[in-house]
Amino acid sequence: DWIMGNYIEEAVAKIREQVGDEEVILGLSGGVDSSVAAALIHRAIGDQLTCVFVDHGLLRLNEGDMVMDMFAGKLHAKVIRVDASELFLGQLAGVTDPERKRKIIGGLFVDVFKAEAAKLKASGAGHKGATFLAQGTIYPDVVESGGTKTKKATTIKSHHNVGGLPEQLGLKLLEPLRELFKDEVRELGVALGLPPDMVYRHPFPGPGLGVRILGDIRPEFVKLLQRADHIFIEELRSTVDHNSGKSWYDLTSQAFTVFLPVKSVGVMGDGRTYDYVVALRAVQTSDFMTADWAELPYSLLKRVSSRIINEVRGINRVTYDVSSKPPATIEWE
Ligand code: XMP
Predict the structure, then answer these.
(1) Do 313 and 241 meet the contact criterion of CB atoms below 8 Å apart?
(2) In this prediction, does ipTM exceed 0.90?
(3) pTM of the complete model beyond 0.90
(4) Is residue 34 a known part of a binding site?
């Protein structure tokens, strides 16, 4: 009874009424929520929306280009891509503590976003500057921060979010997904014409590969991890489980590769190698509070392992993480 077409019409009308002839700025991350929010708001107000996509250099392989193709290319939305990878990787150099890494990434994200908002305002060209900040906040986020659930006494991982940004920027909030659950957000995304592959993607943490490279983040580690992870995801998507007819990507809740900054000995042809190690992580969960490691078929693991070792020079060993949450967490940092 939740009719998507009507829902879109109503939501569009509401956004138009709320925004009037003012302008809106939105931080696009490539994630499901901000993508669907952008597509919906763009449907409602077109060029009154400017998306700012901060590329922190810790995204998945080709992710930045994919986001641009989708939003600037196909939807014809106004998108500013900020290539901030040098800034982020520069500030992160030598930092090994996971929480410090998160704080640096979250803090820089806010700085870069604020600078872009100010630039936009100063750029003139009929631009009065945004008066609204749009966010892809969904119902579970509202409930979590509104106190319906009591806040956990200890923070295990400080999640990168842009809390406090509207106040800092002096902007009003526009949150058109506030009443929706994740499944509804996904349906809405598909109805708005976003590709199902994008809308049904596994969650990706705000700090990105920054928490999947253990310890010190170096540009060469980012490149190795991007390529290894791309192979893993490609094989998960293309391997179908015959019982369910679903791909192993769809049968897992989250799957990714972790870069371990340790070297181990291997052999290739007549030579000895001394290269890095990666761990594959795949979990099944309904709420991400607890999770089981996924019993991926050996044949799939075998293919992923040999492809990574053969195709990614610099990695000579692949391991599979068989730890459940708790006591392990899903991410390694
Ligand atoms: P853990 O590792 O705590 O992860 O079992 C649970 C879920 O949260 C995601 N996660 C994050 N998401 N910023 C995010 O936006 C973060 O700093 C962060 N740390 C973990 C993780 O990917 C998993 O889905």
Answers:
(1) no
(2) yes
(3) yes
(4) yes
